[in-house]
Every structure is written in structure tokens, then in C-alpha cells.
Amino acid sequence: xxxxxxxxxxxxxxxxxxxxxxxxxxxxxxxxxxxxxxxxxxxxxxxxxxxxxxxxxxxxxxxxxxxxxxxxxxxxxxxxxxxxxxxxxxxxxxxxxxxxxxxxxxxxxxxxxxxxxxxxxxxxxxxxxxxxxxxxxxxxxxxxxxxxxxxxxxxxxxxxxxxxxxxxxxxxxxxxxxxxxxxxxxxxxxxxxxxxxxxxxxxxxxxxxxxxxxxxxxxxxxxxxxxxxxxxxxxxxxxxxxxxxxxxxxxxxxxxxxxxxxxxxxxxxxxxxxxxxxxxxxxxxxxxxxxxxxxxxxxxxxxxxxxxxxxxxxxxxxxxxxxxxxxxxxxxxxxxxxxxxxxxxxxxxxxxxxxxxxxxxxxxxxxxxxxxxxxxxxxxxxxxxxxxxxxxxxxxxxxxxxxxxxxxxxxxxxxxxxxxxxxxxxxxxxxxxxxxxxxx
Length: 440
Ligand code: SF4
Ligand code: SF4
What we know:
This protein is of the alpha/beta class.
């Protein structure tokens, strides 16, 4: 069935032209890497190295804890200087290992070896994906091997490779599709093999016609469809993407697998290619460093653990009137309180806004205009949820389905009072989940 326009959504200024034409360039190794252990949704891996240990590139430095968890690997060879608490881009202080590179960038045994992937069956591919530490690289950081393990009673008949990249400013997926289309599709073919799926579609918003063309050319002989989607935010959110593409509705509280669909980001597909074909764990990623507050916006291949400060310095530093640094995009990202925060597997962008742009985001009282209700793609009432969250009435927020909020930021974007709703909903969701966990 063909899809269509989902309910709600907004049309923000995309500002992608700031970095879209800049080819991906590899940033030289920083003098110091701060590698966080908590980089996946689920249980944080546990460190297995200590101060003073020598490590090789690709060596496991933290072991997964349970099924919904993946290992963390050393992004280069060097010495563990310390294990301590550092700012994390999610906006909290968390445990990380500081690695001082030795400059040799020497791989651990068994890594970086080209191999014949056709010999791997579905179970072997899933194991490689887990051992390589793969998570959803669109920002959610959900472990990829878990997504690839739907229960038998929920068979998947459609794999969507998500190249929508609807978040304003960000262009890292765009560049990856232009520069590595065949590799992305090879990664997707491994996912399809695991799931036993023949129907694979790549979904890209129509504001990236060159990426659509590049992916179509690479997909020509593979039987993979590449679909251009209307430009409306949040087109790349899983539920909205599935509805737009094939008209299937993922009910509240359900998952894409409940309607036979699995969605993987293009960056994750590329990482799967690297892991399966070359035994390279996830130790680097493309980060779009952009915004009018940065001197040289660009797309940079960055080692995990590189501090935001070092990345920004590499991109020419901040403009004198820079006002805010965001980890991720302006709709779903998190304002950073320290440039000691470092790049994680989920860091798709670093956006630096000017002071005059930040000044627009000062929250005032709700005037009950209803714009947020019309914009919410999850059909929630953000106005009411915001008032509950503000008054710490988290039980009421829970009863009004705050857990269904996908944190897309459409409500905050249209709100004339510039209310900080996404921030409030994140806190309310955490409180509702904490209480539920305590009760169970
Ligand atoms: S309430 Fe949540 S899902 Fe709805 S618009 Fe706001 S952030 Fe998006
Ligand atoms: S858009 Fe803002 S001011 Fe209008 S109802 Fe929603 S929260 Fe209130």
C-alpha cells in the first residue's frame, strides 16, 4: 500500500546548505580522547581496563551488560590515563576512559581484516554486529543486534534504510549517501539476510536529489527501491517514515516490528558494512559540524571520544557572537554545558547557533493557542503535558501518554511562547519510567 502525509509536523528552516557541499574529511587524531561507556540505549557496558593499561585500536575497553548492551572499543592505540566522570552529550556527567594516543594508531589482533562475508549466516552476522558495538546512528543509539532479533511471531517483510535526515542543519547522512552508496547498500543486504527479507527500500527526503540519484544508481541492479519523500519534519522518525512510505500505522505503545517493518539508519548500514567485511568495530563516525556560529561548517569523520572542543577547534572555532552549542540538531539535540563533552556513537552533529538565534528561545507562559496540538505528529496535547511537567505532576503526564512523545520538538518549534517542552517531556518520561521500574 502506498503511504502519504502523516498527521502534524512542521516546516522549519533547514539551513542544510551550510555544510551539504562539504565532502567528508577525516579529522586528525586528537591529543586526548574521552571515551564514554554509556553509548547505547539499555545497560551501560562495564569497563574492563584500568588506569595505566596500554590499549590497541579496536580493543574492547568495556563489556556489554546483558542483551540490550554493546561493547565499547578503544578508538586508537595508546594508554588509559584515567577512568573518571566527564560531561556526556546527553547533558549529564558519566563515567568515561581518557585515552592518550601513542600516535601509532595500531589495530588490535583480528581487526581491520578484509573477509569473505558470504560465508556468514544470519546468526554470525548478528554476532558480528553486536561484537562491533553497533547502535542506531541516527541518534537513538539502540543496539542494532537487538533490532535484528524480532520474535518469531513478528516476522518482518520490509526493511527501510532511513536516509531522510529531516533534522535541520545536519548533512552527515546526506554526505555518506553521496560518497558511500554501494557500501551502505551492502550493509543493508546483511540486515536483509538476517531478517530473511527481500523487500528493501531506501527513504530519502526530496531536498537531497543528488543523494537520491547516487543511491538509485548504486541500487539499480540490486532490486532495492529508492524513494523520495516529501520534505516535512519529522519525516525521518520511524512511525512517520513507515506511514509515509507504505501507509502502515504503528499504534501507540507498539514498535515497527508490530507492523512487519524494521528501520535502520544509513550510517548504521555503513557501520555494518565496515564491521562485517573488514572486522572494524564502531570507533568513528561522520559528524556534521555546522551552524552560523561555527567558522568553517563541514562534515568530519571523527574518532569516538574526541571532545566537542577539539572538533570545533578543527572546524575553525566559534564565531565571536556564537551563543549555544547543541549536540545533535536544533529540534532534537541537547544544549551542551561543557565542550569537554565528547563524540559518542549517537552524535550525528554539533550545531553552533549565534546569540541572536538563541535569543528566540526564551520560555514564557502558555497562551493556549493550540498550535502545538496541530503540530504534534503523535497526536498528543503538548500544551497540557507541558503544564503537568512544569508542575512536576508526572503521574498526570504519564496518564496523558507522555511516553508516546518521540521528542521531535515540533511543539516547541511552533510555540509562540517558546516553551521548553522537549526538555520538560524528557524529564517527565524519565520520572514515569523510574516510578514504573520501582513498582515492578
Ligand atoms: S509532544 Fe513530543 S511528539 Fe509531540 S510534538 Fe512535542 S516533542 Fe514531538
Ligand atoms: S503552542 Fe505554546 S502557547 Fe500555544 S498552546 Fe502550545 S504550549 Fe501553549
